[in-house]
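Internal QA ticket QA-208
Title: Verify multi-chain structure generation after dependency bump
Assignee: T.L.

Test input:
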Amino acid sequence: MLHLILFLFFGTLCVAGAVNLLAHTHPINSALSLIVVMASLAGEYLLLGAEFVAAIQVIVYAGAIMVLFIFVIMLLNAGAEEHSGGSRIAILLGIPGAVIGFVLVAWTVLFHANTVSVPIGAEHGGPTEIARLLFGPFLLPFEITSVLILIAIMGAVVLASKPEAIAKRQPHPVSSETHELAGAGKGR
Amino acid sequence: MVPLSYYLVLSGILFGCGVLGFLIKRNIITIFMSIELMLNGVNLSFVAFAAQWHALSGQIFVFFVMVVAAAEAAVGLAIIIAVYRTRETLNVDQVNLLKL
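Actual output:
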């Protein structure tokens, strides 16, 4: 009974955050409601007995990724979104489409699946078991993700740096233009 | 005991909200956040199935989804910064040219 109450509490919080994300036009409000969604999802993971995933959810998703989002929103000084002609068509087509999709999924899982209860708190999602799997059968994908992260970091640095900064690093023979840019770069 | 289907319905709601935001939002950062919402909905169903079948592979997949989402967020936000630097706008309706 307590599990059901907690599930409903976190689930309501989660859905409220998701609807709030859609309702607000300013991106900073959407980002903050996304943090609410992720934090309450961590509660759901705890209810499912996945402590490691819950901790990672809070640290990586609600922490690192959302900080990146809010940092970019504030860096770009993003204001409220403005609607144009195309967005009305998107609303007219998007809302019925998404509702139909959701109803299909919910109908299928509620009435066409043998609904077995989830055993709660089975204590099998701890860091030890996860690490045994991650460094055993899943070692190759784990190492590949480290390469992926490295490539993503380099890509982010190259994409987000200013074009002059890239031009400055080229070892071309010195022209007057690059001299100016280099001087400007030193000034920063 | 909470039935598995409750978790799946919650995950479906989250995924539906993500799809809806992806379709109706016009700010490129909010569209990106809707994608993260969809990933979270899928993660919830992974963890629910992992608890259902007593198999930890689902949680490992969630771990990998999070890693890919972090990489995607870093690169995607860098692309958004680059787009904003050249177009001076975040509205996707006004970003309609491949080359300026």
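Spot checks passed. Strands of chain A lie at 117-118.
Status: verified.
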